[in-house]
Design goal:
Blueprint: H1 2-29, E1 35-37, E2 40-42, E3 64-66, H2 69-73, E4 84-86, E5 89-90, H3 99-105, E6 112-119, H4 129-140, E7 146-148, E8 161-172, E9 188-202, H5 206-209, E10 213-220, E11 224-230, E12 236-240, E13 243-252, E14 259-264, E15 269-277, E16 281-288, H6 302-312, E17 314-320, H7 335-351, E18 356-360, E19 366-369, E20 372-375, H8 378-393, E21 396-398, H9 400-404, H10 409-415, H11 430-451
Parallel strand pairs: 6-16, 6-17, 17-18, 18-21
Antiparallel strand pairs: 1-2, 3-4, 5-21, 7-15, 8-9, 9-14, 10-13, 10-15, 11-12, 11-14, 19-20
Amino acid sequence: MMAQKDAKKNKIIQTGWLSTIIIVGLLVLSFLPEINIGEYHLKKIDILSDIRPDTLSEQPQKSYVEIPDTIIQEQIIPVTINRKITRIEDFSGKEKILKHFYEALQNADTNQVRVAFFGDSFIEGDIISATLRDTLQKVFGGSGVGIVPLASEVAGFRKSIKHTYASWDTYTLLTPNNATIPIGISGYTYIPGENNMVRFKPGKVPLQENFKQVKVLYQNTESTTVNYIINEEPTISQTLEKSDEIKQLVISHDNIKSIQFRITPPDNIVVFGVSFENNYGTYVDNFSLRRNSGISLSRLSPELLKQFNNYLDYKLIILQYGLNVASETDSTNYEWYTTRMIKIINDLKVIFPETSFLLLSVSDRATNREGKVVTMRGIPKMRNMQRDIARKSGIAFWDLFEAMGGRNSIISYTEANPPLAARDYTHLTHLGGQKIGKKLADALLYEIKRHE
């Protein structure tokens, strides 16, 4: 009996020594770098990875900055909870970060200063752009939401304007090529049907409901009549003469509480959007296009873009893309995407020579990996490549991924009460959009103060 106990004890001791030897051996191996032997790749061993805090080896030093008390006291930037902002990075090489935009703002009390906010479904429904617009209008003036679509899948979701419509055909940059249909700057074009109707009412944001001008951007092959009703008043009919170029119909009224359009005959016109505005102040046009990677911007006609800019005169173009490219499995580091986006941005800089450009990084996005919801592997890669895109194209860059909180931040947004993000761990709620829109506005306003 004693012999059996001694044997059992010896086995426990032997097992303990063997475990110790294995652990020590793995610790020693963890100091070795990754090794390549012919076609074989031996990864670095790290047995402490599960207990070490998550880090991103490719994540740069945080670009946070404290907001100076003088700015807070002057109420140029509202106080934030932690009084920190994620800085906009300037890759112009000339210390002229967003020069065209900031110089135009100096005359915003008498002129329009317009911003085009291009993006995918992440900004759909005026997410982020609504808060950015509201903040800029509080500081620099302006009222109205800018350009809105004629038909939209998320018309009921958007809060900044109330929108109902019927009988409109929609074409986009992602629609199979049709050379006879020009695509507008927003990436959309709308063709009225036989019983077409579209009706708009202001949303509940005070600065965005007191607009006094409505502009319809269009192109017509033959003479067309636009019938519109303002505030349930008698119908007004206006003839639009044939034009091969983009035109705009301007409707002015002292107090617009609702406006409804109908076009007859419907076959002679394409409509690109309707804008709600005044003659001065700042305006942010939300140009969201679901499933867009940004690459499809190359399909926009340079000549049409120049025509649009003759009316809109953009001083800042914001680009938000990447969610439809980043994945859990892509190991290419997105070099192909970098090359194409650099060309697109450089082409846009030629088309809009008096415009500043700001590229936003991809936001955080999570996936289920082995039963645990974590940041998708491709997200930090995409963020780094987008910074490289901004650097090589010489424009400004804002690290949206870092501003959200970095790795796994979308999880905390989703689990917040009330939620700041949807259960798909990708898209923001309106509250989440307000949070990010405020961070972006703070970053822009901080740089405005530095520019002065």
